[in-house]
Amino acid sequence: xxxxxxxxxxxxxxxxxxxxxxxxxxxxxxxxxxxxxxxxxxxxxxxxxxxxxxxxxxxxxxxxxxxxxxxxxxxxxxxxxxxxxxxxxxxxxxxxxxxxxxxxxxxxxxxxxxxxxxxxxxxxxxxxxxxxxxxxxxxxxxxxxxxxxxxxxxxxxxxxxxxxxxxxxxxxxxxxxxxxxxxxxxxxxxxxxxxxxxxxxxxxxxxxxxxxxxxxxxxxxxxxxxxxxxxxxxxxxxxxxxxxxxxxxxxxxxxxxxxxxxxxxxxxxxxxxxxxxxxxxxxxxxxxxxxxxxx
Length: 295
What we know:
Largest sheet: 8 strands, antiparallel
Radius of gyration: 22 Å
Order of helices and strands: HHEEEEEEEEEEEEEEHE
Strand content: 35-45%
Oligomer: single chain
Structural class: alpha+beta
Strand order of the largest sheet: 1-4-13-6-7-8-9-15
Number of helices: 3
Shape: globular
Number of strands: 15
């Protein structure tokens, strides 16, 4: 082997090593959160939140003394957030487990809600979604989940871009709120939002409109979380991130539901929706403008 060929082989090995090292660094930089405390903090009743599996998961507890809650350390303007949650088993009537985004502003708050409404044993779990934009809310929809959400973990996610907000369960869309600013309907796009979750007592309204009360003899109540995933533009953060069309969540495939997602969405609405503010005529004699698009 000649000296020049040896040098050539050495250069190739060094180059390959450098490329592999850069890839390793990038993978570490883009890795998902390893622990709860990397992206979140306890906001309410630290004694009722327990870290599990080295902080990769958590347990929330509700008893007669207190509920509890946590929040992200940063706020985000557009992106996608998801968590795996296992809800309270058995008789959970009167309890609410909430996972939501909120701008934490009073008069003109923006908010995107998942609220899991407890049930009497044997009855389906309902999930209520709501959207607040520029301080206007009252856009509730309720869906009965088609599985037992207390038997195992399921993925709950919120996708938020300039075109729509999509609430999904195990990648099945259950709610789409489109950007209808052209119709004069407010859309959340100016205020960054934090990610929050709480477990609390709400037996004045949560189950059958408040008819079913919490059975405290079944307490304490537990909900479990893991696999926290936040992808978005942190605020404060890189300038112009939220308006960058190269962000994956702004891509053409996320500006509206694709054919498969549309079929799943229609299936949910036709078979599992139990309340929709759009069709509540006593409450809204004139159908809200954002409801005119149909499914």
